[in-house]
Amino acid sequence: MAITSGFFNSINGDRKYNARQIGRYLGSLVSSGVFPNPSTNLQVLAGEGMAIQVSPGKAFIDCHWLENDSVCTIILDDADMVLDRIDAAVMRLDESDDARSVDIVVKKGEPSSDPQPPQMVREDKVQEYCLATIRVRKMKDDGAQEIVQADIADTRADTEVCGWVTGLIDQVDTHTLFLQWQDAYGRFYADSEAEFNAWLEGIREQFGEDIAGGALAKIQSLERDKADKASVFQKTLQATGWQGEDAPFTCALSVDGVTESSIVDISLSSAATQEQAKAWMAGQLADGGQEAGKVTVKAFGGKPESDIPVTVIVRGDA
Question: Mean pLDDT score of the chain, rounded to an integer?
Fold first, then answer.
């Protein structure tokens, strides 16, 4: 048993301290991980082609520190021809005599039909902390390959593989919360995809596989039935007229005679091209309500990038 203490001024060389002693003292004050402020500290982003970029930032690992003062670009190995893999952007502490450094490297995963991220090493001399995992999708038929932001999962907040630096208290355990986020996102994506597929199947049942052509035929039939019973206006939803940052986007049309209580039907014009019909379907356009002299259209699927001619039918007040 021994009691040690420090730090004290040296007199004739009787008080000398090494890096491990200084680091051990700091390690009792702060935990290992990425410094949380700013939130972009060591964030991994997609670059061009097979490149990723690690943002500037600082970290503290097992009594050692790392500082990245500029964007660090790393090129990933080529994608597999047949299977996906998951790589990991890793902070690696190596205390062996020939290294003695903390670096940022990419740890390559194994191609698989169910790829898993590489395991982090936590040994006496080597410690690894995962900043992000990157899904490297199999090479396309034409040989194209790239990393996009959607392929990158930020793991800095996951205490199982990384975590934030905290002071004087143990690391806040966010691993369970991180898994909940991942699970909630996965369920939301699956539910949304199922709802969209059900909606699309319903459209196919109405119009057949040639959705755009079938929609045009149905619209033309509806216009003939309604033309003699209501006021009909030919309008254009301008691509530049859509408002909003997130769906549903809105676009307003000026329509003479419409009131808040009017019965309004909006449909794709029979003069629309097939491309315009596809834009109508992709946008999932719907009636967004009306007020005196104005009708609003909502786009639930996405903001249309081309002009779309529409027929607005206004019938007597309800």
Answer: 83
